[in-house]
Amino acid sequence: MSLRFTIQELSEYVEEIFPQIKDDFEILEISENSSRVKLKISFKHLRPGNTVSGPSIFYLVDCAAFMAVCSRLGKEALAVTTNCSIDFMRKPARDIDLVAHCELLKVGKSLVVADVKVYSENNEKPVASATITYSIPPKSDN
């Protein structure tokens, strides 16, 4: 299996299908089994307590996994999230971008399972860890 996108092509594809998120993310790396994606933290990602909100961290996890799945399967596979288990382990700083490292653990015919770790940029200790599953729609016969 080969990589289906360059970083530029994947960025353009994500912007095409999800134009509302184009300013939130930067794709740092992709491979046929992984992605590294940055969430550019802004005021809309914060919660009381002066930290990044849990939904914003999930947003990063989900997008990093989606980008890894697309880089492996291409445009035709509009996979959807079917399950996610996330552990929030540390309070991220409010003024430091978050980076998600996603690794595809299993790519089957109908499901993809991935592991995602989220870090404050330039920090070695994760703020969150997740396992996420995507459903791959069956290929049409058209």
Structure commentary:
The two termini are 23 Å apart. The mean pLDDT is 93. A hairpin with a 2-residue loop joins β1 and β2. The strands form 2 sheets. The chain has a 6-stranded antiparallel sheet with strand order 1-2-6-7-8-5. The protein has one domain: Hotdog Thioesterase (Thiol Ester Dehydrase, Chain A, Roll), CATH 3.10.129. The protein is of the alpha+beta class.
The geometry reads as: globular
CATH class descriptor:
Alpha Beta
Main sheet: strands, sense, barrel: 6 strands, antiparallel
The fraction of residues in strands falls at 35-45%
What's the topology here?
Blueprint: H1 7-17, E1 25-31, E2 34-39, E3 46-47, E4 51-52, H2 54-73, E5 80-88, E6 98-107, E7 111-120, E8 126-135
Antiparallel strand pairs: 1-2, 2-6, 3-4, 5-8, 6-7, 7-8
Gist?
The chain has helices at 7-17, 54-73; strands spanning 25-31, 34-39, 46-47, 51-52, 80-88, 98-107, 111-120, 126-135.
